[in-house]
Specification:
The complex is a heterodimer of chains A (about 210) and B (about 325). Chain A has about 210 residues and is mainly α. The chains are: A mainly alpha (about 210), B alpha/beta (about 325).
Amino acid sequence: MEHFALWLAAFLTLGIISFLYKDNAWYKLTESIFIGLSAGYWMVSLFWDNFYGKFWVNKSESPYLYVGAVLGLLMLLRLVPRIGWISRWPLSFIVGATSGLWLINYFSSNIMKQIEATILPLFSAQFGSGFDAGAAAIIGNLVIVTGTFSGLVYFFFSKEHKGAFGRTAKLGIWIIMITFGASFGYTVMSRMSLFIGRIDFLLSDWLGMIL
Amino acid sequence: MTSHLMPPLALTLVDIGRILSLAVIAGGLLWLFLRAIKRKEVERRVIFLFIFVSVVAPILFPTVFQEKATPIVKDVFDKIESLPPGSVVLLSYDFDPAMAPEVQPMADAISRHCLVRGLKIIYMCLFATGQGQFTSTLENVIKPEFPDKVNLVDYVNIGYKAGNEGVLNVIITDFKKMFPTDVDGVPYDSIAVFKGIRSCKDLDLVISIGGGKPGIKEWILFVGDPGNVPIASGVAAVVAPLMYPYYPAQMLGMLGGIKGAAEYESELVHHYPQFKNSPTPALLMMGPQTLAHLVIMAFIVIGNILYLLERKKGRKR
């Protein structure tokens, strides 16, 4: 059984990689298996975790659980075109609840604390005191402050980008481009890691070729 | 006598393999450059082949580079070092098998570090598939390397709960409400690891390993900031740039991608030589990673040289 699983995994991995040569039936089969398996896995997992684990087991403990169950059932009405519009009710509940849940935390963490983290002392270590900062910390703080400020200036379109304002906006676009470059570099590293992982599987686990 | 003056060149099979692969790649790039100068089309499959060779060669003939921990990785390491034995660390496996090659090495290295320091670990996951990934740590790290560590006493797996940030919103005030038992059904109150732990606010450190949603961002927004809980992370490289703004004020440190994992492994082996023979997959992956990046950089340079040549020709016309 273990051998079968190994060969199956190798067959599917090669099927996905075969797309690099050209689109083909092997790739399409592998892709469909992947999507089908993912959907099946999530359905079974959510059924046992949510419906059974949270509702069925505890249904006698709280009547509120029935509200959730009914909303869940209403969501399935999307499958019946004539009364599919009812599924918008649970959906609006989800959107409302998620907004409410995120609003305060998002405002506090992503706005207030981020602004706080951008207002940095120039001649002291980031969280230290006095004038004991090293050159690296000072340069780092300067880059963060000027980078954030000029980046924001670039997105201020109510004033024409001319003169000192235009030069700051230009610096902003440079900062943004460098950020995109770093992001792209990290993305390449990420994708390459996944590829290395699969090649490592093929060479070591499947073919046993590692010296 | 001759050998005394000039030591014999002791090339191993691996060395020969390395030299040959580098020669093939360098020669190939030169061929590509010359072909491009002659304005001959280079098919994209040739590019893929180059990347394939540059990944396969260092796997077949391993090349391990020395890694030095950068401050953002060192901060995570130092935080774990600073915790007294018996402290409780929560390790959340917020990833799936697709992300595993990149982040599983982080989870394994951090588990090793916590266990060797005598810290207690609570394992959980916000991804259903994280359960399987924890099994990998259990079978490949905890059981073989720490046979004396006892489930429920030194570590506990409380598993997965659906609800994403909703789960975090509950455990920031009450763990038991969301996780009344561990994965095997052992009641919360009889788990020794949870002694004195009522909510996330009682934890000494939370580390989220992942790269998707829910992940580290949710941990910061729903646990770290509101509960003032020390948070660290190990993330897939694709997410790392998005998380930098949270460091160091809202996130004490981060392992970004396989490079971060390799730095952590290197730091661990440096401080704890007993792990010298333990698997270091991230360090091994840095060989193919580096060579593949060099090849991509060569492509960029070749592409830009050609662009400049084209532009020069255009101006002359």
